[in-house]
Amino acid sequence: MAPPAKQPGPSGARRTQSRGQATREKLLRVARELFGRDGYEGTSIGEVARLAGVGVGTLYHHFADKRELLLELLDRESGETSADLMGERGGPLAKALRAPDFRASLIESLRLIRKLRFKYPAVYMIAVDLARRDPEVAERCRAHEERYAELTRVDVRIGLELGRIRKGIDPETAAVTICRSFEAVLRDLITTEGEEEDARAEILMAELADMMARYLLVDD
């Protein structure tokens, strides 16, 4: 009778887990590059595996399909953006409401958001397009939008407590209005690059900041 197979010890299990995580990260990195270069339809599972230096079976061990790769990238990039924007005292809107110059602070935050989105614009734009015909992607996008809306609701409440936002503003309605306005501008900004486009982006961000000031502030 053959002896039972030796099971890996704690250190061996950790090494296996570490290698698996490294493979997963490489697959995601390659997928992001291919989505940016070839688009969603033009990216194949086989090409992702080949450029990552693994077999297709290994890829399927980590991700069920191409959509799962996209959703993982979307979740990560949304989380990274939130982490970069949020502070101990709230998000970009709360920061602007505490600042002496609301408009200047809000424009500064919009520039940062644009910079963050420009790091990997393809994932965001692919997800927005795919959401129109893929319920799972649409649901994931809605979940991210709701998270941003909740953060904005918190910021609006902070503004009301500070006395910077007009009394009677409903945090729920304000959050939806602000998030949809921000998203419309950001989708426009993400597709614009170059000197002329940068100048146009500055105009759009200034107009959005002016609109938010007129809508929210007690002194506007």
Distance between the termini: 86 Å
Per DSSP E runs of 2 or more residues, the count of β-strands stands at 0
Quick one: biggest sheet?
Answer: none
Radius of gyration: 22 Å
In CATH, the architecture of the largest domain is Orthogonal Bundle
Quick one: CATH class of the largest domain?
Mainly Alpha
Number of domains: 2
User: What low-confidence regions span 5 or more consecutive residues with pLDDT below 50?
Assistant: none
CATH superfamily membership of the largest domain? Tetracycline Repressor, domain 2
The average pLDDT value, as a whole number, equals 87
- The shape is elongated
Indicate the CATH topology of the largest domain: Tetracycline Repressor, domain 2
Percentage of residues in helical conformation: over 70%
How many helices? The count is 10
| Structural class by helix and strand composition | mainly alpha
Describe this structure in words.
The protein is mainly α and 220 residues long. It has 2 domains: 10-63, Arc Repressor Mutant, subunit A (Orthogonal Bundle); 67-216, Tetracycline Repressor, domain 2 (Orthogonal Bundle). It is built from 10 helices and no strands. It has helices at residues 10-38, 45-52, 56-62, 66-85, 92-98, 102-119, 121-130, 135-162, 171-190, 195-216. Helix 1 (10-38) crosses helix 4 (66-85) and helix 8 packs across helix 9. The chain starts with 9 loop residues before the first helix and ends with a helix. The model has no long low-confidence stretch (mean pLDDT 87).
